[in-house]
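Entry type: protein chain
Record version: 2
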Amino acid sequence: MIVIESVKNPVYASTRGDEIDSLVKFQHLPAEVEFTASFYDPEEYGVQLYNSLIKGDFGPIAPYVAPLIPVG
């Protein structure tokens, strides 16, 4: 079983709203990792985390900001 100890800095990963990036501390890992939670995740813990994020369990979700594309 995957245990999530903490979740920080949730931000939408796209304009669709079906993916959310955040820093997650999993019990079995020594440090926080970047993790994308999705409604379509094949793993149950990913879907559960996504649903918890949408409910606001870890605070507000920052809006998606498109990456800057260098010109030239």
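Comment: The beta strands are 4-12, 19-26, 33-38.
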